[in-house]
Design a protein that fits this description.
The structure holds two protein chains of two kinds. By secondary structure, chain A is mainly alpha-helical. Helix content of chain A is 65%, strand content 0%. The mean pLDDT of chain A is 79. By secondary structure, chain B is α+β, with helices and mostly antiparallel strands. Chain B has a six-stranded antiparallel beta sheet, with helices on both faces. About 8% of the residues of chain B have low confidence. Classes of the chains: A mainly alpha, B alpha+beta.
Chain lengths: 26, 210
């Protein structure tokens, strides 16, 4: 998905990481 | 770059503090940062050097919803739509982890679990921006006024596409609070009535001159 701007990558990485943590602890 | 990284980190901390310290149950917080669309200035072809101010994604913090079995769910999405969301999340995981086909820290769990409506709304938000004066954040910023919509009727009846979209994805409350260099937006899948406590917090966290 190349249209995701580089500047938003950090937010995206954080969201995906936290989502994984939520799923693991559910 | 170091300054930019530090700015991102503190922005994230402020958004997180806003939500985690609140009495109410907010699902997410986003900071829409005032930026300038330099590309738009180049594209007009008329030698117009003025750049369009816009509110672009600054950072966001997603907390999620509290599990409430009795809560009425919005219209369920189709299996095809859910599959599409999962595929996008898998691709994003792959993109973030370096395009090797894996996921963040390995494992496939994060790509196979259902992507909730509010998660999807938050993800899609990362791709959006608002010209000053347009959309929910744009209106809040240009009028220097907080917009507080609570109840699905208020969201569904809004003139702003973003609020109507939020209602479709299960939000019951959306708030946009203007700051010196952007707008703080919060959303919740519960009805939260307007209170000055939240606005005071945003004011002290996001307005450096205060």
């Amino acid at each position: 998905i190349p249209s995701v701007p580089q500047a938003r990558k950090a937010s995206l990485a954080r969201f995906l990481e936290k989502r994984k943590e939520r799923l693991m602890s559910a | 770059p170091a300054h930019s990284q530090a700015n991102e980190d503190t922005l994230q901390q402020r958004l997180q503090a806003l939500i985690e310290c609140a009495r109410e149950s907010w699902t997410y917080a986003v900071f829409w940062q005032l930026s300038y669309d330099f590309a738009a200035g180049e594209d007009d072809g008329g030698g117009n050097s003025s750049n369009t101010p816009l509110l672009a994604w600054g950072d966001g913090y997603y907390k999620g919803e509290e599990e409430k079995p009795m809560k009425k769910k919005p219209t369920p999405i189709s299996a095809a739509e859910q599959e599409h969301r999962k595929r996008v999340v898998r691709e994003l995981n792959s993109l973030i982890s370096g395009g090797g086909g894996g996921t963040v820290n390995g494992g496939d769990e994060a790509g196979d679990e259902e992507v909730t409506d509010t998660e999807w709304f938050f993800l899609v938000s990362m791709t959006q921006s608002f010209i000053n004066g347009s959309g929910l954040p744009g209106q809040a910023f240009s009028n220097s006024q907080t917009i507080w919509l609570s109840g699905s009727n208020a969201l569904a009846g809004s003139s702003c596409e973003r609020a109507r979209q939020g209602q479709v994805y299960g939000l019951e409350t959306m708030v946009c609070i203007p700051t010196e260099n952007g707008v703080v937006e919060l959303g919740s899948s519960e009805i939260i009535h307007q209170n000055s406590d939240l606005m005071d917090k945003v004011n002290s966290f996001f307005n450096p001159s205060n």
